[in-house]
Structures are given as structure tokens and as C-alpha cells.
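thought: user wants a sequence for this fold. calling inverse folding tool.
action: design(structure=
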């Protein structure tokens, strides 16, 4: 078979892309690193390896860690993100491979960012379980595009129960500051 790839008509055998990428069949984790050190690597790997889609017993967390570290060291990026993608090699989902990509952190010009809330039912978001990230991200990016048009940095989704579920691209968490006001109260005996 001949395919058109990067401006050329070439034999499909010479294109070394796993076709499951085209189908969105795969899972991933994105891990931040600061000063070339990965943050919460083990937690991310535990989440990735807990999925029910693939048997990851043939892939080593230690090997992923070593290769991720080598990738960070080979690049001149001190602070950034690595994305680990796991895909089946064929229709037999027992044979797996993984890729690791690196990128810089996006530049944010302000210390604060505008968010916008969207009903997740209005976007085709594929979610098997909120903790597993599939490669099917079209709904998330459509919301991201709409948020930009609406003047926001990141869309935050809520479900039919009006509960916040996730950000389109980024994780969401809340920091709360509690102030405890302790007063001395005199008690008297009755």
C-alpha cells in the first residue's frame, strides 16, 4: 500500500507509526518535571498501570522511568512535561509498546488565569473512568477552542449534577486557606 505522509507518497511499510494512534486506541500519562526531576512519577505510573484496557505486565515501570530520565537529560529543558503513551501493537491488545515525548511548559503571561465552566454534555468527551486518560481528546480540544474564543485560558467541565469533573487539558485542584480564630472564653459555674 502507498500512503501520503509528510509531503511524499511512500510505502505504508516505511511509515513507522503505530496505526492505533490513528484510532485513538491507547492511554497516556503526562508528568511534570522541575529541575530535571519528575514529580509524582510513581503515582502517575500506578494510575496508568491500573487501567483495565491493557495488560501492562510486559512493560516495566522502572524501564519507563529510566527512559524518561534519559529523555529529560538529552534535552535542554529543565522544567517541562513528559507524556508517556501506551498502545497495542496490533488488534491483539496483549502486545504493547510505549512512546515518551517531551515538551516545555506552556508560557503563561499572568500569575492568574481566567477559566470558564462548560457542561461536559455539550462536548464529545470520552471518559471510561476519570482517572484514565485515553488518546481520544477531540471533545477536550473543542472546549479549549471555545474557551479561547470566550476569552478564557482553560475550560472546566461540570456534569449533569453540576459537579466539577475536570479541566479540558489541565488538572484542577483547589487550595483552601482556613483561618482559625481562637478566643479565650471564660466559663462560670452555675
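)
observation: tool returned 190 residues.
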Amino acid at each position: 500500500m502507498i500512503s501520503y505522509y509528510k509531503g511524499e507518497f511512500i510505502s505504508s511499510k516505511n511509515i513507522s507509526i503505530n496505526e492505533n494512534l490513528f484510532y485513538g486506541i491507547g492511554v497516556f500519562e503526562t508528568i511534570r518535571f522541575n529541575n530535571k526531576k519528575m514529580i509524582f512519577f510513581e503515582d502517575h505510573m500506578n494510575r496508568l498501570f491500573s487501567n483495565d484496557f491493557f495488560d501492562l505486565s510486559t512493560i516495566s515501570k522502572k524501564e519507563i522511568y529510566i527512559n524518561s530520565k534519559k529523555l529529560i537529560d538529552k534535552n535542554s529543558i529543565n522544567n517541562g512535561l513528559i507524556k508517556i503513551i501506551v498502545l497495542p501493537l496490533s488488534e491483539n491488545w496483549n502486545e504493547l509498546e510505549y512512546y515518551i515525548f517531551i515538551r516545555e511548559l506552556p508560557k503563561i503571561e499572568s500569575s492568574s488565569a481566567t477559566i470558564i465552566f462548560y457542561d461536559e454534555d455539550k462536548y464529545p468527551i470520552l471518559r471510561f473512568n476519570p482517572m484514565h486518560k485515553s488518546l481520544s481528546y477531540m471533545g477536550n480540544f473543542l472546549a479549549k477552542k471555545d474557551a479561547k474564543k470566550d476569552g478564557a485560558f482553560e475550560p472546566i467541565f461540570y456534569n449533569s449534577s453540576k459537579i466539577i469533573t475536570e479541566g479540558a487539558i489541565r488538572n484542577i485542584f483547589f487550595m483552601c486557606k482556613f483561618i482559625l480564630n481562637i478566643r479565650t472564653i471564660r466559663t462560670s459555674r452555675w
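thought: summarizing for user.
answer: Here is the designed sequence. The radius of gyration is 22 Å.
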